[in-house]
Amino acid sequence: MNTQRLIYRLTSWPVTLAICLLIVLGSVAIRLWPRTVPFEQCSKLYQKYAGHPGLQSAFIKDYQIDDTVLVDVTLIVATDSISWDSLRIDLAIPQLDPEVQKQISDDVIFTRQVNKHDNSQTIEGDSPDAELMAISYSKKTICVLHVKNETERHAIYYHNFDKSTQQKK
Questions:
Q1: What are phi and psi of 156, to 5 degrees?
Q2: Which spans in 38-129 are helix H?
Q3: In angstroms, rounded to a whole number, what is the distance separating the alpha carbons of residues 113 and 132?
Q4: CA-CA 20 to 30 A from 84: which of 7, 90, 101, 152?
């Protein structure tokens, strides 16, 4: 008799409603829970610039480039001109001629291959030590994409070219 009474109470409307509410709240909590990568697992570049005044930095694990390509990304944004100049010099990014800078009205993304052990050195050709650095002069942003193979490299070049040439409607 107690079993029937327990089953009746568990199937009553208030209990059913409470269980559904717990499921919904649990799902929302899991969805909104911040997904952070431990500091030790972030890139060396992120570790170097995290917390610097005048710079905002982020490490993004498995950023989706297209349907099949996921790469780790280090993003550094300079919040002022002094920080931008310091970052630009530190990573050996050339300064644009003022005349060229004036002609860039939209956000053009420059992409180059750099050495993954020293991001200030460029690398030519196919190398396992290569990463891609995307540079936006107008947004004072540097993005290092940690690629592992030629397929990822090609997808990123195509993605950046597409973003740079996309016409506003």
A1: -70, -45
A2: 44-49, 81-90, 98-103
A3: 5
A4: 152
